[in-house]
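Researcher: Here's a chain I'd like modeled. Treat it as a single chain, no partners, no ligands.
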Amino acid sequence: MKTCRVSFLCPLFLTLSLFAQPQAGQPSSSPPGQKLTIEDLFAEGGITGRLPEDIKWSPDGAKVSYVQRDDSGEHGALYYIDLATGKSAVLVSSEKLAMLAPSANSTKDERQKEAMQRYAVAAYHWSPDSKHLLFDSLGQLWLYSLETGTAVQLTTSADAASDPKFSPAGERVAYIRKHDLFVRAIKSGQEDALTRTGNDNLLNGEVDWVYREELYTRSNYFWSPDGRSIAFLEMNQKEVPHYPISDWIPTHPTVDMMKYPKAGDPNPLVRLGVIPANGGKVKWISGGGNEGELALGNDPNVLIPRFGWVHEGLLWAMVLNRVQDRLDIYFVDVQSGKSKRVFHETTDAWIDMHPQIDFELLSSGDRFLWTSWSDGHYHIYLYQFDKQNPLAGEAKRVSQLTKGDWEVEGLDGVDESAGLVYFTANEGDWRQANVYAVALDGTNFHRVSKENGTHGPNFGPAKTKAYVDTYSALTTPPSVSLCTTEGVCAPFWRSRNVDVYHLIAPRPVEFKAADGTTPLLGTLLLPEDGPMMAKGKAPLIVNPYGGPGAQYVRDAWSNERQLFDQILVRQGFAVLKVDNRGMANRGKAFALPIKNHLGLVELADQMAAVQQALEQYPQLDGSRMGFWGWSYGGYFTLYTMEKAHAFKAGVSVAPVTDWRNYDSIYTERYLGLPGDNDEGYHNSSPVNFAADLHGNLLEVHGTSDDNVHLQNTIQMTNALVNAGKPFQLMLYPRKTHSIAGKAARIDLFRRIEDHFEQNLAPVK
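Model: Modeled as a single isolated chain. Structure tokens:
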């Protein structure tokens, strides 16, 4: 038994050990030895149950709240755990929650639904006093009092409000409506439009599609610390081209023209402004254009992925150049308009605004934390600037807090009173993500989480000395726990018992990359029997992702697509997943080889891994191999089936087929501008080599995909037809990039299984 050494948390862990609110995660009553089916994978709640949603800490650190819904997602309640007493209870009942925070199923538009889930749009927000909640009910805002248990509707406009934020004192709420910024006083109900220029081409404080998707920007406006003004980003999309999303289901089809900059297209023009919270004239931050000053102007090659307040009257802004190999941070004096570059970084690779890139101001007012690839791995650095004269010069690096042949995956929390920084990293095993702490002077580096696997921490205010941890491992389904910063955890949600399915554990494997030296990590599922096996040999299905900015092989519980492997292995297929060079969380040297040409190095590594697997596992049949993937993996499938002769069948889901079709920020990060790298774009794009297709191809796309457009598959279809190459095509009407929904998913995965069974079956 572990001893609870943080006294005020002891009641919490004593209570949680006896009482929890798993609901959807209760043990299954399924009979022993139940066969896993595609229908099980995509049933409501899946095989593990629906995880808690919208886990949040109250600002005072006294409560952790979360939404727990049933398997259907239609019914649920908002729960909380009181840290002082350890008791868990309902905060908002199911009946009230159904009105205040309707399920995602209430949103019928597939694109809106996917955006809400993909970008984690919050259903509720805590007020600064921790006594109220703000709910977003299908675009209408409601203020809920925890003391009275009643809700008051704040907005009634027919037009939806989005991205609501309380003012620092909690007496007002700001939000975006029809591309403009509004503020409403809670007591009087008075609403003020701070901007009035918003339209489909001009977004005030609102995030456009490409910033949200590729720069991970989640908001473009922020209250000043004293609540007197709001800093916001204006995005001018006038020159950004449109892409049509067509709905062919109605008798008279509709078309939605979305703004989408493809590689080489104009990006949105951005400028930073500050406006009084009571309304008034916008003060635009333009700078003088001198060396070291922030100069935005009308430059489509400037990206501003992050900005905020250093303190009252002083802003910070992060600026990226278009090809994302230089990043600058500026401080801006709002009153004078003067600005100064206080930090800059350049690289021979790229600066990806993935969660690894963190800028964290410390409450001391003169220091910030920064994560960088500057020594070849993502690590944490401490910088200091002149608090009295912050525009005096560039910030100075004080220390490097972490170092080693491993990656920091994200800053999670800072406890300045204890002098500790908490972060997630893969120290010791590239496949894991564990929680660590280090002192602000670089000493006292230690691991906080105990179990090997993948941890997703959500830290509360520093004074709570606690965090919520979502944990899983390769053979351990998810659980959600409340933990102390000493690593003592008590689960409040567990997955259903999945032992009834007798899942087969994947074997961790390691191979050498095509360079002969770099280790490649993967997993291999080997069947014991099944109709696809012949004379003790199994056909091999290779299922990589392959692309930059992602890691596929993790010591984590599988998602639905990966659990599909369990169905394939029961049929007698072996399944191999390997992370090739170019992918994430292995350092810059591992990622860099793909720069300026996609597909080439990835394929060389996959083929090297396949060859070594065939040599090491004689039960694999190298004459019966398949390849499949989704998104970048779909692109990779097409590229592979054109360049390699080894695969008899492939399935390409939602693929990019010509990199000139994909968005500017992602594509130019890795390939540069089309005009500067015409050869790289041409050679990386499968549409140009359709005549070289080998094997039997099934290509799949959702017709409403606003990420990888259907245009890619239409162009590929045209190229294959003109080249006289047979193939199969499946389109899913109204479906987006994820092709979500029970019926569509079941149909798709049945087709994938059937495709491999038909093409990789033993020869009779």
